[in-house]
Automatic annotation (TrEMBL):
Protein's UniProt keywords contain Ribosomal protein: no
Family from the record: Belongs to the glycogen phosphorylase family.
Gene3D superfamilies linked to this entry: Glycogen Phosphorylase B (3.40.50.2000)
EC numbers for this chain: 2.4.1.1
Named cofactor requirement(s): pyridoxal 5'-phosphate
Keyword Glycosyltransferase found: yes
Gene source species: Methylobacterium aerolatum
InterPro entries attached to this UniProt entry: Glycg_phsphrylas (IPR011833), Glyco_trans_35 (IPR000811), Pyridoxal_P_attach_site (IPR035090)
NCBIfam families: P_ylase
Protein name: Alpha-1,4 glucan phosphorylase
């Protein structure tokens, strides 16, 4: 791993190694109370992390003193940070030094790193993006604080029982978190419920919220180290606690369980990431989570600004708050409440501060993913905020009426309150209205925002929506995940590529150089062999590293169309069975991802994958030609093993529904060829790597809209495709579930009826494209030239580029402050 890291300040030997060796030994013995002979890998991990943390604090010391001119505050309900040791080692340039130090103690660094649990504080792309952005901001020396929740249990641990997904708590904090600093001095009171009192105040009426319930938000800071240790920012995660540890009177009165009830209710807020919202209680807990972390974060940054600058009217000059999706959209009324009710500012001043400090990133066009909350729930839980929302909305609609836009249909479309299906607060509209800038995350997504979900609001303020295409941190997804490829790039184009990924373009000229291609292929084969060993260990399935590794790993969702991949798998299985003597291209289909616990269709898709895998892998007629694997418990660390080993990256969402994607970028950077629709950032990847180096199929966003307008499009597509019809029949007949023949009828019936994600419309083109991929794999010179071009041309997709654009065009932060 270490060859990809920057050169340490001192060579991997001598004093640097001795210093770290002794520091790790001291932490193990004096802090953890363990001996060298009996310490577990986990103990060595903690000791090493604590020794590194000391050096991170030392690196951060020069940042003390004069506050920066402007800070970024990044509010996100998810931070999928994964394991942190590899980031810290790589960015501090200490990988080989620590490897040598541990080696002198008889300990292997790789085993120590494997003992670190994944911090699964996110569900997928949204949380991983937040983690990449935090790392890039530190690397670019952008002063920033990330705000989120310190979940006791992050995204659930996935296992399988008879092919069905099972969920268990993710216990990443079971033995503590050595990276974090508890900050009890940064504790804020968060209210819920109660009512609002009014009293005369000067020329008007003062309103005061009197909550009936109070929860404490206690800060825990995780340092975020920039590249080459240039800057350390912080990720501040909030833990929920009750105002009192126990109701002693109730306990002494014999109610031992009830005495803890208030504490348990408070702590439930930070207990689990994304509790199911299938029940009213689950919906309330989600809203409590969102308000809890948003209020704590705003109170914290307001307090910091007052201590550093005094006058809150200057907040927009020194703070930029980014709302990552609608989860923290309650920041609009909460900041207004803090400024007016708590700080005594007038409404106009408070509104100016709010709308010049907040910015909002939209991540979805799916109506069901654009959050709305029942007015009744908001009024009961956050009564003062609903008053503020009503006033914002009234002023907003009055302005429309005065401007000649008073017709009922228009007012209903731009109102913050949706009254079409019960009264609900539109959090996307609220965030849009309260933000200075609203951004999409790919060119297509941003265009669709302007013409679909926010079309009427966009017409009112045509400059507000801007595009900022997502990016990934190359330090994690190239340097750390693929050290062999990084080492090769450094040897060929120079060490400068570690700081300037655009220098990867120097690999372009070597795409047909036989010597370089051989070395590039050797790197890929090494990673494929490692993945094959991991697959065998975790699933018991043996796969051939020389086969084409066809990978789809991401959250399981109908619009991401894992089911389309499975339909093609079944059709390929049928084709091989029909012509067993044909020279088929060996292929291994690798799936991974989690379905939300209450998402029935997604969990059924996982079960179908398991049943298809069982049938295919046990059939001797297809042996050596097709294997199917579903790796359990997909995580950041598992992604780091899979992505560098992939030959083909499946990015096959229904066009117009994937906002951006970042997995597509990680795969392409590591040389996997993309098979995908013209959706999200696939379009921009095609533009950068070249249309000849990517496999595009299916309807585009306009085609999807047109096809959906055609009655009976699914039935017509199936009737026109004997191959698709046969695959559907095989699944529906119970061939893969003989013990329960009708198990998958909900999936096949939906495709034959509604098919809202147009799998039937795209199937034939997808099949044809996959067979073109088979042919391309059989031309190694062409395949590896395409792979090298992908790696060489992906520099634009660095999250450093994304952060520079945010800093310049949204936050107005100077990079030289």
């Amino acid at each position: 791993m270490g060859a990809s890291a920057p050169k340490p300040a001192r060579p991997a030997g001598g004093d640097a190694v001795v210093d770290l060796r002794e520091a790790i030994r001291d932490k193990l013995i004096l802090t953890l109370g363990q001996s060298l002979e009996t310490a577990r890998p986990r103990d060595w991990f903690v000791a090493t992390a604590l020794a590194l943390r000391d050096r991170i604090v030392e690196a951060d010391r020069p940042q003390a003193g004069q506050p920066p001119h402007k800070r970024v505050y990044y509010l996100s309900l998810e931070f999928l940070i994964g394991r942190l040791m590899s980031d810290a080692l790589n960015n501090l340039g200490l990988t080989e030094t620590v490897r040598a130090a541990l080696g002198e103690l008889g300990v292997d660094l790789d085993a120590v790193q494997d003992a670190e649990p994944d911090a699964a504080l996110g569900n997928g792309g949204l949380g991983r993006l937040a983690a990449c952005f935090m790392e890039s901001m530190a690397s670019l020396k952008i002063p920033a604080v990330g705000y989120g929740i310190r979940y006791d249990h992050g995204l659930f641990r996935q296992s399988f029982k008879d092919g069905w997904q099972q969920e268990a708590p993710e216990t990443w904090l079971a033995e503590g978190n050595p990276w974090e600093f508890a900050r009890p001095e940064a504790t804020y009171r968060i209210g819920f419920g109660g009512g609002v009192t009014m009293s005369a105040s000067g020329d008007g009426i003062a309103r005061r919220w009197e909550p009936v319930e109070t929860v404490l938000a206690v800060a825990h800071d995780v340092p975020v180290v920039g590249w080459r240790g240039c800057q350390v920012n912080r990720l501040r995660l909030w833990k929920a606690e009750g105002p009192a540890p126990i109701d002693l009177a109730r306990f002494n009165g014999g109610d031992h369980v009830g005495a803890l009830a208030e504490r348990m209710r408070a702590e439930a807020i930070s207990r689990v990431l994304y509790p199911s919202d299938a029940s009213a209680a689950g919906q309330e807990l989600r809203l409590r989570q969102e308000y809890f972390f948003t209020s704590a974060s705003l109170q914290d940054l307001v307090a910091r600004h007052k201590a550093e600058r005094g006058d809150l009217r200057s907040l927009p000059d020194h703070a930029a708050i980014q709302l990552n999706d609608t989860h923290p959209a309650i920041a609009v009324p909460e900041l207004m409440r803090l400024l007016t009710d708590e700080e005594g500012l007038g409404w106009e001043d408070a509104w100016h501060i709010t709308t010049h400090t907040l910015h909002y990133t939209n991540h979805t066009l799916l109506p069901e993913a654009l959050e709305t909350w029942p007015v009744e729930l908001m009024e009961r839980l956050l009564p003062r905020h609903m008053q503020i929302i009503y006033l914002i909305n009234w002023m907003h609609l009055e302005e429309q009426a005065k401007g000649g836009h008073g017709d009922a249909a228009h007012l209903a479309s731009v109102s913050l309150i949706d009254e079409s299906h019960g009264r609900r607060v539109r959090m996307g509209h609220l965030a849009f209205h309260g933000a200075r800038r609203v951004n999409g995350v790919s060119a297509l997504h941003t265009d669709l925002m302007r013409t679909t979900v926010f079309s009427d609001l966009h017409a009112l303020d045509s400059d507000k929506i801007v595009n900022k295409t997502n990016g990934i941190t190359f330090r994690r997804w190239l340097h750390t995940a693929n050290p062999g490829l990084t080492r090769l790039a450094v040897e060929v184009v120079g060490e400068g590529v570690l700081d300037k990924p655009e220098l990867l373009r120097g690999l372009d000229a070597l795409a047909t150089d036989a010597g370089f291609v051989a070395r590039y292929r050797a790197v890929r084969r090494e990673r494929k062999q490692a993945l094959a060993a991991l697959v065998a260990d975790r699933t018991g399935i043996d796969i051939d590293p020389d086969a084409l590794f066809d990978v789809q790993v991401k959250r399981i969702h109908e619009y991401k169309r894992q089911l389309l991949n499975l339909l093609e798998t079944v059709a390929l299985y049928q084709a091989i069975k029909a012509e067993p003597h044909r020279d088929w291209t060996p292929r291994v289909k690798i799936f991974g991802g989690k379905a939300a616990p209450s998402y029935v269709q997604a969990k059924l898709i996982i079960k179908l994958a398991a049943d298809v895998a069982r049938a295919v892998n046990d059939d001797p007629e297809v042996a050596g030609r097709l294997k199917v694997v579903f790796l359990p418990n997909y995580s950041v660390s598992l992604a780091e093993a899979i992505i560098p080993a992939a030959d083909l990256s499946e990015q096959i969402s229904t066009a117009g529904l994937e906002a951006s994607g970042t997995g597509n970028m990680k795969f392409a950077l590591n040389g996997a060829l993309t098979v995908g629709t013209l959706d999200g950032a696939n379009i921009e990847i095609k533009d950068h790597v070249g249309a000849e180096n990517i496999f595009i199929f299916g309807l585009d966003a306009e085609g999807v809209t047109a096809r959906k307008a055609m009655p009976g499009y699914a039935r017509a597509a199936i009737e026109a495709s004997p191959r698709l019809a046969a695959a559907l029949d095989m699944i529906a007949s119970g061939r893969f579930s003989p013990e329960e023949p009708g198990r998958f009828r909900p999936l096949t019936d939906d495709l034959r009826g509604r098919d809202p994600y147009l799998l039937t419309a795209d199937f034939d083109d997808y099949w044809r494209t996959q067979r073109a991929i088979d042919a391309a794999w059989r031309d190694p010179a062409s395949w590896w030239a395409k792979a090298i071009h992908n790696t060489a041309r992906m520099a634009w997709f660095s999250s450093d580029r994304s952060m520079r654009e945010y800093a310049d065009e949204i936050w107005r932060v100077r990079l030289d402050q």
